[in-house]
Amino acid sequence: MEILSTAQADFEPRFQALLDDARETTARVDGAVSAIIGEVRAEGDAALLRLTSRFDGWAPEGVAALRVTPQQIDAAVASIEPGLMQALDTAATRIEAFHRAQLPADIDLPGTDGVALGMRWNALDAVGLYVPGGKAAYPSSVLMNALPARVAGVERVAMVVPTPGGALNPLVLAAAKRAGVAEIWRVGGAQAVAALAWGTESIAPVDRIVGPGNAYVAEAKRQVFGRVGIDSIAGPSEVLVLADARNDPAHVAMDLLAQAEHDEAAQSILITDDAAFAEAVIREVEKALTTLPRRAIAGESWARHGAVILVRDWDEACALANRLAPEHLQIMLDDPRAVFGKIRHAGAAFLGRHTPEAIGDYVAGPNHVLPTGRSSRFSSGLSVFDFLKRTTWVQAEPHGLRAIGPAAVLLAEAEGLGAHGASVQIRLDEMQLRR
Amino acid sequence: MEILSTAQADFEPRFQALLDDARETTARVDGAVSAIIGEVRAEGDAALLRLTSRFDGWAPEGVAALRVTPQQIDAAVASIEPGLMQALDTAATRIEAFHRAQLPADIDLPGTDGVALGMRWNALDAVGLYVPGGKAAYPSSVLMNALPARVAGVERVAMVVPTPGGALNPLVLAAAKRAGVAEIWRVGGAQAVAALAWGTESIAPVDRIVGPGNAYVAEAKRQVFGRVGIDSIAGPSEVLVLADARNDPAHVAMDLLAQAEHDEAAQSILITDDAAFAEAVIREVEKALTTLPRRAIAGESWARHGAVILVRDWDEACALANRLAPEHLQIMLDDPRAVFGKIRHAGAAFLGRHTPEAIGDYVAGPNHVLPTGRSSRFSSGLSVFDFLKRTTWVQAEPHGLRAIGPAAVLLAEAEGLGAHGASVQIRLDEMQLRR
């Protein structure tokens, strides 16, 4: 953990080092992945069966066994305690409502000059949702990825999830059921991505693949990009907390650790204007690290990537926040909206002293799939926009073409594109003749 | 050129072959490109000077010579005939108006339960615009790439354009001036992309790079993706024309050729319900191919990738159009909107008999940078959305956290994330104590 102060002479190089801290070391798996994709393309279902036996430690008896049955889904739901099912439903209801508010309107400009213009949004036909197996199988991620697709109007959402040792994860199945996902395949890894992109005898291809995964899954998504769309490939998680001394240091410490417990490569940063408060937070972090269940992971993240930055005022803090462009930003100040107004780059913001980032991970409503590694400078969290695309349109009446056609002809000729110009000019000539 | 009919027994495999037609053969240039990027990262401006001498055939006298001066821009504008400047202005004015109509509204949900939610759009800080040099230097592309960024509110648009042999392209500079782009660098290729992504002593880095380029530029964009955002990498252009026998075959033929003249790999397809009309269009294409300035290119595109498909009705045509998911779609029918209502996948549509696609390339208003190669199934044309990103936000009051916090705690515990749950629970416990 590093302690910096903007008052120090060496602040700028130290802050720059923090910005340049490449927390991810990606394994090179491109060769292995392209071999797997090749097998699935060549052999379809047979390759899926063989690769599932090899990598997931169970041997499906034929292709039918790869599809999760409605009975298996119902049994999963029945096995979950009602309070937890209720929590899942609260989360889903709020996520749906927020994403419905994102749905954009079409544009329809009649035009006063004989040229009507517009833009229409359409949902994608089919989306594939990758859900990791094992310890990182998060029901909240199923909701966050599937619900925006459903709200956007995607007709077919096909989920793939590895079932290591053949074990189904009941909470993941329950989340899928609540999200309206009925097509679930027990395949994972690069082979699942290949099946979604290229299709097999059993699995129809999709148009876009979303959802988190390990290095093999990320590389497979990279390799099938172009044939299908993909979401951005997430790096380790981050939080930046702006907090003054009026906060409870224990609250701030736990907010920092909630991020750190995700992954040793996660990063938690506190910016404050009070040195004594900074010290109090650091002590609370150390205290909590003696008791937390995931203290080994959280402790390593805090030690390696954590930072506390002392600033002279909140304008200085905003300038640093914009350079960090964090995935998650907590603003724990008296007037959080005033400071938020000066923030240009952040994936998601959590305003005030009673809004720990964790409520955004589960139940607040906005998506928890967010841009990492400073990419909120140019990209955004998952949303209904990921499952919609636009078609623009133009409809010219004869007098409209007469009005704007000559400019098109001039520009086409200046660019040396004769048929472009001619396709407009022959129509203009004919109108001239008819007059 | 192929002629298909849905009435033929072998239609399905032949149509599938058309869908699978990979028109692009990308050269492998990744090694050369990563070497160039490495040089620019290590040496900055010095590498730009050396690489410009090597690849562009002129030797800039120092870094200052790489920046186009206001005097050079004004001289370029003065050299262009007024009619053409007027056409450029007509185009720019209409493009601006259409893209302004795209600007989305923020979301601000006060919430009735003590949890306010919202989403805010912000423009990117800085965007790089790649403009190809030489014969493919299109002023219309400068407008189509730069104006949406300006309309979105991007403060800094930095343009890079190679000047082979040292020659500036006056129309490109005039288009840049009209689009409000004042920062223009005379560099191109992978070195220009590297400079925009990583920055040099003279060129500040940007957040996203857009604009077309050759194989080196496309590969450089792929390699810097992640550090900065990039636009999608365009393949060869396509048009699909749906036309009945009430059209003039010469109009349809010229619309097909306007696409074919772009590139030998371009693809023009006609779908019609009238065999005699199809033959008339084919004859008109052959006739026009004897006179067009770019007949060699257009002829090769038509011969290799062109197709005419006979259908029994327009529903059948719509189904095929959705499978083709064309970049450009012309619907030359009496009621084009009824048929357009059945189209789910197309980059841009041109409705009616008086709307040749070429007016969309220049002056209609919607963007001409569009998804190719069937990718309109999952992606969209360039727009203000490419230059904006979203930050979601949540602000919970104490009673709001009391309402939704317990569900977050349950879900966090079910996922084994103890600090997530604790960050909510310690606040709930404290409120309990205070009551």
Can you describe this structure?
The structure is a homodimer of 435-residue chains. The longest helix of chain A is centred in the first third of the chain and has 21 residues, at 82-102. In chain A, helix 10 links the parallel strand 9 (238-243) and strand 10 (267-272). Chain A is built from 17 helices and 14 strands. The model of chain A has no long low-confidence stretch (mean pLDDT 95). In chain A, strands 1-11-10-9-12-13 form a 6-stranded parallel beta sheet, with helices on both faces. A 5-stranded parallel beta sheet of chain A has the order 6-5-4-7-8, with helices on both faces. The first copy, chain A, has 3 domains: 2-23 and 235-365, Rossmann fold (3-Layer(aba) Sandwich); 30-110 and 124-230, Rossmann fold, CATH 3.40.50.1980; 397-434, Single alpha-helices involved in coiled-coils or other helix-helix interfaces, CATH 1.20.5. Chain A has 435 residues and is an alpha/beta fold. Chain A is globular. Chain A is 47% helix and 16% strand. At the A-B interface, helix 5, strand 3, helix 10, helix 14 and strand 13 of A face helix 5, strand 3, helix 10, helix 14 and strand 13 of B. Strand 14 of chain A pairs parallel with strand 13 of chain B. Chains A, B: It catalyses: L-histidinol + 2 NAD(+) + H2O = L-histidine + 2 NADH + 3 H(+). Chains A, B: The active site is at 327 (proton acceptor), 328 (proton acceptor). Chains A, B: NAD(+) binds at residues 130, 191, 214. Chains A, B: Substrate binds at residues 237, 259, 262, 328, 361, 415, 420. Chains A, B: GO terms for molecular function: histidinol dehydrogenase activity.
